[in-house]
Amino acid sequence: MTARIIPHKKELHRTRARAKERSWYLAGSLAGLFLVLIVVYIYHINHAVVGTLAIKDNEKQVAALEQEVTRMEADLMTVAVGGNLEARAKELGLEAPGTPRFFSGDTIVARLDE
């Protein structure tokens, strides 16, 4: 009976060795898969953060450009109305006999001091 036990122990030892190899292979595969998932997750989070920061920067640029456009429109209106109006009035002979003074800055009511 001892002769039968020894081959059985050898076979059992080989089976256990194969099982250990398989468990290491499985553990390595799972660790590799986990690492790949972590890298993909970090990449996507980074992409989302960079996109959000780019959107905020673009919104700031748009706000600055809108302010500049508003300022330039005001400058254009001042130049267009003031220069053309004065030249056209002189052309038509509509010059005021004195210097106009306004009663308040938010109305167009004026009087002439002679």
Alpha-carbon Rg, integer: 43 Å
Q: What characterizes the major β-sheet?
A: 2 strands, antiparallel
Total beta strands: 2
Strand order of the largest sheet: 1-2
Which range best describes the helical content: under 10%, 10-25%, 25-40%, 40-55%, 55-70% or over 70%?
Answer: over 70%
Q: What is the arithmetic mean of pLDDT?
A: 78
- What's the number of helices? 1
Secondary-structure element string: HEE
Terminal Cα separation, in Å?
139 Å
Overall SS class: mainly alpha
Number of domains: 1
Could you name the ranges where pLDDT drops below 50 across 5 or more consecutive residues? none
Spatial shape? rod-shaped
Strand content: 5-15%
Q: Short description, anyone?
A:
It contains 1 helix and 2 strands; from the N terminus they run H-E-E. By secondary structure, the protein is mainly α. Strand 1 and strand 2 form a beta hairpin.
Account of the protein in words:
- The structure is a single chain.
- This protein has 1 helix and 2 strands, in the order αββ.
- The protein is mainly alpha-helical and about 110 residues long.
- Strands 1-2 form a two-stranded antiparallel sheet.
- It is rod-shaped, with a radius of gyration of 43 Å.
- The protein starts with a helix and ends with a strand.
- Keywords: Membrane, Transmembrane, Transmembrane helix.
Topology:
Layout: H1 2-92, E1 99-102, E2 110-113
Antiparallel strand pairs: 1-2
Could you list some keywords that capture this structure?
114 residues; mainly alpha; two-stranded antiparallel sheet; 1 helix; transmembrane; transmembrane helix; membrane
